[in-house]
Amino acid sequence: MLEPVVARYQGRNIPRYFRADAAFANPEIYEYLEAEGFEYAIRLPANDALLRDIELLLTRPVVRPSNAPVVWYAGFLYQAKSWSRARRVVAKVEWHNGELFPRIGFIVTNLGRPAKRVVRFYNQRGTAEQWIKEGKNAVKWTRLKCLCLRRNRLVGDEKSADRRPMSPKIHNLKPRNGLQRQVTGG
Q1: Among residues 1, 86, 169, 182, which one has the fewest Cβ atoms lying within 10 Å of its Cβ?
Q2: How many C-beta atoms lie closer than 10 Å to residue 7's C-beta?
Q3: Angle at the Cα of 55 from the Cα atoms of 54 and 61, rounded to 5 degrees
Q4: Is the distance from CB of 108 to CB of 80 less than 8 angstroms?
Q5: Dihedral, CA atoms, 165, 170, 175, 180, nearest 10 degrees?
Q6: What confidence tens digit (pLDDT) does each residue in 15-29 have?
Q7: Among candidate residues 168, 163, 160, the one with its CA nearest the CA of residue 184
Q8: Which whole-number Å values give the CA distances from 138 to 43, 176, 177, 178, 184, in the listed order?
Q9: Quick one: pLDDT band at residue 159, thresholds 50, 70, 90?
Q10: What is the dihedral sign for C-alpha 50, 56, 59, 60?
């Protein structure tokens, strides 16, 4: 599944990174990326063993309540039964005001950055996906089909020297998704 992406970057002398959600949390993928020289940050589903490793962070903080969440980071080595060796796991624990339980996230990584920077790097995955989604929607929205092309034609026949564009008002624009819109400019 990753071979075409890895092949695209082989031979280039650039840093190679891989960010993915928990669907890619697979030891074969970790080993493949490590063998190909990629640095990665992949979301890891929580389990009892991981929660035991961050047990100290799961006690409610004794501080004055504020609107800003209390956020703690931890990095530790962890080896699942299916893994051939221990790998670095970064945990983020967020205590939000008014919530009974913390929000917990785990990321398996081979990045040498501090835990907070690993989480920031991983969270950019969502930002990139959002940009891609917005870009796809923008492309679809700008593919308009004008039903009234006569308004955009020049007035007069081709031999006439008196060519002038019609009014800049364009009506009856129809996006490909079928929604009706009316745009008036000028």
Answers
A1: 1
A2: 10
A3: 100
A4: no
A5: -160
A6: 899 999 998 899 999
A7: 168
A8: 29, 12, 12, 15, 19
A9: very low
A10: negative
